[in-house]
Every structure is written in C-alpha cells, then in structure tokens.
Amino acid sequence: MSDAASIDVTSLPARYDDVRAHTERLAAPLSPEDQTVQSMPDTSPTKWHRAHVTWFFETFVLADNEPRFAPYQDTYWFLFNSYYEAVGPRWSRPMRGVISRPGAHDVGLYRGNVDDRMRDLMATLDEGTLTKLAPTIELGFHHEQQHQELLLMDIKHVLSLNPLDPSYAGKPSSGGMSGTLEWRDFDGGLVEIGHETGLDGGFCFDNELPRHQQWLEPYRLADRLVTNGEWLAFMADGGYRRPELWLSDGWGRVQSEEWAAPAYWSERDGVWFEHTLTGTRPVDAELPACHVSHYEADAYATWAGKRLPTEAEWEHAARLQELAGADKTANLADTESWHPRAAGGPVDGLRQLFGDCWEWTSSAYLPFPGFHPTAGALGEYNGKFMSGQMVLRGGCALTPPGHARASYRNFFPPGARWPLTGVRLADGGAPREPRR
Prior knowledge:
The chain contains 10 helices and 12 strands. By secondary structure, the chain is of the alpha+beta class. A 4-stranded mixed beta sheet has the order 10-9-8-11. Helix 1 runs antiparallel to helix 4 (104-124).
C-alpha cells in the first residue's frame, strides 16, 4: 500500500482509465467462447478476470463511498468474489468455467457501469476524502495489473489444449544467443531486505514490509537464467527418471502426472516443440527454460551441483546491481513479446533479473519479521496465503512494468507449472558435485 500523502490524487482518474483500458486491450483478441473456458482449477476464464477486478472497485471503493450505493447486480457480488471471506460467500473457484452467463458482452456492460460510477465518484469527492481513499484505489490498480498477467497465463493454458493449436496474438520473438553462463560473487553480511520507498517507488504490497535486517553468507549467482539447451541436457541425463534428484513431494508429482519435460513441451518425431502465446514452435536452445515448477527447478539445481537462491540473496544482489526499476532492457509485458528472450552476451552484472521468467527461490512464502496485514477485508489480500507456497522474484514477459521491483514477492505452490517461471542457479559454501 502507499501512504495517502504520497499519491497525486489529480492523476487518479487518468491512471484509472489507463489500467482499465489495458485489461480490455488484452482481452480484445479473444472470442466470447475463449473468454468462458476454464481449463483447470488453477486458472480462471478471461471474462471472470475482467469481472473480478471490476467487483474489486465496486466492493472496496464504491460500496462505502458512493451515495445511495446499490450493487450493479446482486448475484455478481457472489459470483466474482475471489476469496474475501469478510465480504461474504463466493462461487467455487474450480467451477468458474460453468458460469456461461453473464457472457463476455454482459461483463463489458458491468465494467462500463462501474467505470462511470468510479469516474463520477473521483470527480465529486472533496480532496480530503479522495486523499484518504487514494491508497485503496491505487491498490485496485495494482490488483488489476496482477490479473492482467494472470489473464495471459490462463489463456495460454486454455489455448494449449485446443487441437487447432491457436495463438493468442503477436509474432514469435526473434532468435538470439544466451552466451556462456558466468558467475557473480557477493560478499553477503548484514543486509536490509524489504520495500524501500526511495528505491522501489511509492507503492508496495503489505507482504513486502517491513524492511528488516538479515544475515547472508557469501554466495554466488548465475548471471543468467537456465536455457532450454541446458534443460535438454538434464532431460537426456535422465533428470525426470532419477528419484535421487527430487524432493519427495516432487518425485510424487513426476510419477502421478508423468512429467518428462517442462509444461507446454511436446515431442514430435524426435523433435521437441513448445506452445507459446504466439504459436507452437520448435524448442529454441538459447531461450530460457520456462513453465517449470519449484520441484523441477530444485531437481535441476541438484543435478547441476548447485542450489536455488534465497529470496534475500536475490533481492540483495538486485539492489547491488542498482537495477530496481532501472533495467531498460527488461523483457516485461510492455515489449509484447509474450515469451522469454535470449539473455544476450555476458555483461558486468546479472542478466535477466527483471522480466523473461519469474525466478524460483528456495524461500517459503512466510511473513517478514514484524509483518502485520492490512486492517479489514483487504488484510486477506496476501497474509492468508503464507503457508505451503514458495517465493519467486523478478517478473516475467507477461508482467506489467510497475510490478518489477527488487522487493516484489510473488508466490505460487511448489507444483505450479502454468505460471511463466524459470531458474537462476546459486552457489555458496561447500561446493557440490553435479549428479550426472
């Protein structure tokens, strides 16, 4: 959350229009049928994302501040609540795909109605009241941007199951080279972790706070992400057939779900292909390996004789690189590549810190020392998920640029493969022998 005094309230209407219009631009290439499909319990239909972020503004802004407030439609209050128990009951997440009505067009009408009411509210509130409300409105912006990323991840899974092999939009990114993997050394010591306004901008989610001290031993990070070519070597060496490389739960998933390659890979006549938002194409050895779970990332690191970085190591390295919000080459959603790109040749520092793939860490998603969730229903935004999940850092090719900062903490269950995730290796302490 942002401090109310730090927000320029005069910019709120224009920022609101920009965020809301961008969601519609992302949905525009999709048919109403595309927008209705839920391909597995972890994904949501496109039209549900469009409706839910609208519900957020209706619920947390209009309901308490609009004169003579009434919901746009009583049942929408129930259908498009995601997980806010304090707000009331909600429709089952795995069953979102059976909601054929309202259709995509009707969701658009809902969005238009709430947009008009939000504009009227921001235009009529006195400056003092709008200033108090500004942090919640800004949280709504960042919440919608999170769902813009999820919308793309989810429709990628939906389209991957279609036998017509459709693409979402855009053209495949051009080739390139990733170069030799090199190592960068960091001294460690007593470091500070967590959001810092001067470095990370004014906004943060509550799980990025409070800033606190943490001790790090000296460590090394790979200067780029693991590539498809390196992952193919792991596969060729029996990586998915060797239980000694895997955590117990991970090995159980390998067996029960018959994992043999990253998600969205398929083998045809001895050639591996990869489904992307821009179409299915042969696996490019130079691009980052993506759509791998934490279990796979950990197994690969074990095979390579390395480990995954902790989230504190990752953030410390990012701050030392002075890249937080300043990496002009980052492959984020604004490039509209919709897929990771090759790292390019080595540089003095770390490549691909922001963009391309979310990077798994070895850190469980837990509260920072002294963490307190936001008061009220919005306190359910992050804190209630601090169990059974792993932290990822950095951003991906589907991430809005405003979410690429050194302190940003993403999180997913360790078996998740549909997010756009990749692997950066770490090392430190006693050297480990590769298990090859």
